[in-house]
From TrEMBL:
Name of the protein this chain belongs to: Mitochondrial basic amino acids transporter
Originating organism: Oedothorax gibbosus
Chief subcellular location: mitochondrion
Localization terms from the record: Mitochondrion inner membrane
Lineage per the UniProt record: Eukaryota, Metazoa, Ecdysozoa, Arthropoda, Chelicerata
Catalytic activity: L-histidine(out) + L-arginine(in) = L-histidine(in) + L-arginine(out); L-ornithine(in) + L-arginine(out) = L-ornithine(out) + L-arginine(in); L-histidine(out) = L-histidine(in); L-lysine(out) + L-arginine(in) = L-lysine(in) + L-arginine(out)
Keywords, comma-separated and alphabetical: Amino-acid transport, Membrane, Mitochondrion, Mitochondrion inner membrane, Repeat, Transmembrane, Transmembrane helix, Transport
Length: 309
């Protein structure tokens, strides 16, 4: 378990490093005003960020998920592992879905404040965001910790956990789909001798990530909008989750709930490839390669959900 944990942390860090630029793009596309668009799409968003904010703009807020990886790993490994071991059939899709959903539910209470800080750090510096304020000072939050402190000072604990309901609605089913999808696809990729090639594992991890994101993406979009709402002292647009859904649908229709999805799908494969490569390398150094089991890799891959998805 200790080897899994350390390898998972390092693999997760590699995944965040590779995937964060596309996560920044996803968040900006999700939250931009449909009546005053800054970005036409994924690659226009990337080029605009680089032009206006340099390459560093793509990595805004990355320290937040990096700092929380150890805590998230500890929670997910513990909850997921204990529930799987408690079930009668550890490899059944039902057991994998149940364990993954429970892990997603519990870790949401840790990841929600982290994602609040990440989201707000990723959004600050845009030219049309609270224009009057940015004309005076384009940087309101110095770092993720400063963001959380300011959220607490203005709204208390409620401010820190803005978007928690959406995070739970996203991560509980999302992790369930991810783990069960990973189990199913790995079974299909396993040969008659019980072996799975590295290339197959990379493909399986990427596909499992895409499956879970397609299912939960509209909820993630609403979460981003709620967490961005009222940042930097701006006026709040949404009263809550249902109000955000209603107003988003009214202004953009069903299509609006998929804004930024292509950035997420593009991000899934390189993120999982980096996570797997580093995880496998560390695990092979610290343990026998023959011990690298399906359950271990599954435990790491869940980090692609946002703190890694």
């Amino acid at each position: 378990m200790a080897v899994d944990f350390y390898a998972g942390c390092l693999g997760g860090c590699a995944g965040v490093l590779v995937g964060h630029p596309f996560d920044t793009v996803k968040v900006r596309l999700q939250t931009q005003d449909s009546s005053n668009k800054l970005y036409r799409g994924t690659f226009h968003c990337i080029s605009t960020i680089i032009k206006q904010e340099s390459y560093q703009g793509l990595f805004k807020g990355m320290s937040s998920p990096m700092a929380g990886l150890a805590a998230v790993n500890a929670i997910v490994f513990g909850v997921y592992g204990n529930i799987v071991r408690a079930t009668s059939s550890t490899n059944s899709l039902h057991a994998q879905f149940l364990a993954g959903s429970a892990a997603g539910l519990v870790q949401s209470f840790v990841t929600s404040p982290m994602e609040l800080a990440k989201t707000r750090m990723q959004l600050q510096g845009q030219d049309n965001l609270h224009k009057a304020f940015w004309q005076r000072n384009r940087v309101f939050y110095k770092n993720p910790l400063d963001c959380l402190i300011k959220a607490f000072k203005t709204e208390g604990v409620k401010g820190l956990y803005r978007g928690l309901g959406c995070t739970i609605l996203r991560d509980a089913p999302g992790f369930g789909v991810y783990f069960s999808g990973y189990e199913y696809l790995t079974g299909k990729a396993t040969d008659s001798k019980g072996n799975v090639s590295t290339l197959s594992l990379l493909a399986v991890g990427g596909l499992a990530g895409v499956m879970s994101w397609v299912v939960i993406y509209p909820v993630d979009l609403i979460k981003s909008r709620i967490q961005a709402d009222g940042m930097a002292g701006g006026e709040k647009k949404y009263k809550g989750l249902l109000d955000c859904v209603r107003k988003s649908y009214k202004s953009e229709g069903y299509k609006g709930f998929t804004k930024g999805l292509n950035s997420t799908i593009i991000r899934a494969f390189p993120t999982n490839a980096a996570t797997f490569a580093v995880f496998t390398w560390v695990f092979m150094i610290m343990e026998s390669p023959s011990n690298l089991g399906m359950q271990n890799t599954g435990g790491v891959l869940m980090l692609d959900q946002e703190v890694a998805c």
